[in-house]
Amino acid sequence: MAEQKPREIKMGRGARGMGPRPKLENPGRIFKRLCAASFGHYKLHMVFVCLGIFLSVLCTVRGTLFMKELVDVYILPMIGQKDPDFIPLRNAIIRMVIILAVGILSTFTYNKLMIYVSQGSLKSIRTTLFERMENLPVKYFDTHSHGDIMSVYTNDVDTLRQVISQTMPQLLNSVITVVSILISMIALSLPLTFVTLFMVAVMLFASKAVVSGRF
Amino acid sequence: MEDFDELNENLYVSANNANKYVNIMGPINAQLGNVSYVLVAIVGAIFAIGNFWGFTLGSLASFLTFNRNLNMPINQISQQFNTVVMALAGADRVFKLMDEEPETDEGYVMLVNAKKDDEGNITESEERTGLWAWKHYHKAEGTTTYVELKGDVVFNDVDFGYTDEKIVLHNIDIYATPGMKIAFVGSTGAGKTTITNLINRFYDIQDGKIRYDGININKIKKADLRRSLGIVLQDTHLFTGTIKENIRYGRLDATDEEVVAAAKLANAHSFIRHLPLGYDTVITGDGGSLSQGQRQLLAIARAAIADPPVLILDEATSSIDTRTEKLIQQGMDKLMKGRTTFVIAHRLSTIKNSDCIMVLEQGRIIERGTHEQLLEQKGRYYHLYTGNQIAS
Ligand SMILES: Nc1ncnc2c1ncn2[C@@H]1O[C@H](COP(=O)(O)OP(=O)(O)OP(=O)(O)O)[C@@H](O)[C@H]1O
Ligand SMILES: [Mg+2]
Fold first, then answer.
1. pLDDT by residue (tens digit) across B248-302?
2. FRET label pair with A127: which of A13, A182, B14, B277, CA 20 to 30 Å apart?
3. Which residues are registered as beta bridge partners of B343?
């Protein structure tokens, strides 16, 4: 309403995922609040999402472990046999197909659920935002540029959409995957696990060196 | 422009870093992954052949797949974590906007439709009567009084600053009786718009008192106070919709006839009639297809339909062709009739007939009086006026 005064130029947020990490006062608190705002009304859905992620990772790992069985139980003993019995192998393969199907199904289900949850919570975030904004004093709009306010609605809310619906589940997926792969590796062979971890360390070190600009 | 260059440069640098990361790190990680795979294959083969710790060929097959599959999530975790942290900055801005203090309103005096009986006593009325009254509830006595809405505005020794450090207005005294036309002149930044921001309580004063029909405006409900004020701003905001809807925005229950009457009063009728669909022409995108002058005419029509007792006109600074300017001038003059009007003038010719002209400088009223009185004083106004005349 009141007229705009020329003020220092502020730009919208740059492309996301680039540039230095922003400094935040209390990231933990903001994260908690974000989770509460996003998942607070969908606790049951989220339980199923977590279960779905867990199940899908487990199925993949189980599928990989099947390789061991396949080679040790069904292939090696049969090499050189005159009249190999393929029935147990067929049964094992059917079991595997079922496990993998369960994995795919749970991946599909948790993604669907996540879309539902994130759209619902984003709608409520946007509505709350707009309702609150309508009741702000003119002073707020005089001291904040229209561009900055708009950018909250476009950039920031869109970033939230992506993070709530995709990145957070993916992050959980990655963490569970890494942990379960590590456990399986240790169960298979501790020394080889060390070899693998050593190479992972080298890789992370190299990434750090590149990012800090030594190349 | 320099700011832009700098920001653009920053964006380039960070985008470049991101690209560098993707383009260099991708191949390096892929190569290191292959090294890891081969290493595990060799060592694992030795284990399997020697059958150390029960390690079999099958174990090796599974292990190699795990080795392959481990790299991707590990690399992704840090990226995903980064994305979440970046998004937290956005979430922070969203929550900050949510947490902003809403506009408070302790006002309790309300604007109601009123009737006057034969003795001149005012009572509340259900339907629209055209007569308005302030319904004032006195807590201490538990009584309610009605004060007729007339448009009497008094500033009493008002001080104001947008921030506590810098006072923008000093000792402002204004007495506007109903129907008076008060004009503000002064150089840019003198505080003219600020005064009008105080009348409609976009901002609250630091010191002094503002009274509206004798009531301290802090006691009046903000929505009702603003309903009793008509404001024509320097720049008009139109929304997407028909011309009719845009005019009716001034008073949502107005009939079509009232819309046309208001447009006629504002001198907007003739240009609207020449639009392809007349009053049903749809304007889009803040009225970009209309000229500055036509938009002002619509703003005047909007104020006219609201029919407020007090008007605030902030004259457009931008140049408008003389014909439209005359139309606007006439529209405003018609609108002002019988109302208390505050005019912020950029062309002194438009305010010569004011009842009182206030000359503002750096937040103080340095001269006040009618056009003739001020000319006689040969002060600041005289210089402005004569300077203005030479210029035009
Ligand atoms: N929202 C705001 N926050 C802080 N300071 C402000 C704000 N709006 C105006 N000011 C300052 O208050 C002073 C008076 O401004 P104001 O807008 O009242 O001037 P004006 O007389 O209307 O000028 P113009 O003729 O250019 O419209 C100026 O110094 C201005 O910088
Ligand atoms: Mg101004």
1. 888 888 888 888 888 888 888 888 888 888 888 888 766 667 777 788 888 888 8
2. A13
3. B183, B313
Q: How many CA atoms lie within 13 A of A2 on its CB side?
A: 25
B62/A188 Cα distance (integer angstroms)? 8
Nearest to B245 by CA among B221, B274, B277, B217: B277
Q: What is the pLDDT of residue B288?
A: 66
Q: What is the pLDDT of residues B217-262, one digit of tens each?
A: 888 888 888 888 888 877 777 888 888 888 888 888 888 888 888 8
State residue B131 phi and psi, 5-degree precision: -105, 130
Q: Are B84 and A27 in contact (CB under 8 A)?
A: no
Q: How do residues A54-63 score in pLDDT, each as one tens digit?
A: 999 999 888 8
Which H or E run contains B206? Answer: none
- Residue B241 Cβ inside 6 Å of ligand 1? The answer reads no
Please, which residues have CB within 8 angstroms of residue B86's CB and are 6 or more apart in sequence?
Answer: A16, A17, A21, A22, A159
Report how far residue B129's alpha carbon sits from residue B135's, in angstroms, rounded to the nearest whole number.
Answer: 15
Taking the C-alpha atoms of residue B356 and residue A23, their distance in angstroms, rounded to an integer, is 55
Q: Which of B276, B69, B247, B303 is nearest to A196 (CA)?
A: B69
Rounded to whole angstroms, how far apart are CA atoms B102 and A139?
11
* CB < 8 Å to A137, chain B: 101-103, 202
pTM: 0.70
Give the rounded distance of the alpha carbon of A37 from its chain centre.
18
Two tokens at A172?
């959980």
Distance between CA atoms of residues B176 and B329, nearest Å? 22
* Alpha carbon A113 to its chain's center: 14
* pLDDT tens by residue, B64-83: 888 888 888 888 888 888 88
Residues B145, B136 contacting (CB under 8 angstroms): yes
Inter-chain CB pairs, A–B, below 8 Å: 246
Give the tens place of pLDDT for each residue, B193-218: 888 888 888 888 888 899 988 888 88
Q: Which structure tokens are listed for B192?
A: 């003219």
The candidate with the shortest Cα–Cα distance to B354, out of B166, B233, B97, B174, is B174
The answer to whether the Cβ–Cβ distance between A70 and B28 falls below 8 Å is: no
| CA dist., res. B16 & res. A14, Å (int) | 13
Task: Write down the residue that tokens 């904004």 correspond to.
Answer: A133
Phi-psi region of A17 (alpha: psi -120 to 50; beta: other; left: phi over 0): left
Of the listed ranges A162-176, B15-29, B191-205, the one predicted with least confidence? B15-29
CA-nearest of B381, B203, B236, B370 to B314 is B236
Cross-chain residue pair B63–A204, CB shorter than 8 Å: no
Task: Select from B181, B200, B174 the least CA-distant residue to B360.
Answer: B174
Helix or strand (DSSP H, E) at B110: strand B110-116
Asked if residues A165 and A115 have their Cβ atoms less than 8 Å apart, the reply is yes
Question: Does ligand 1 have an atom closer than 6 angstroms to the CB of B168?
Answer: yes
How wide is the angle at C-alpha A31 spanned by C-alphas A29 and A36, nearest 5°? 95
Q: Which residues contact B181 (CB under 8 A, 6 or more apart)?
A: B336, B340, B341, B343, B351, B353, B354, B355, B356
Exposed/middle/buried for residue B256 (C-beta within 10 Å: 0-12, 13-18, 19+)? exposed
| CA separation for the pair A139, B112 (Å, rounded) | 28
φ/ψ of B41, rounded to 5, equals -65, -45
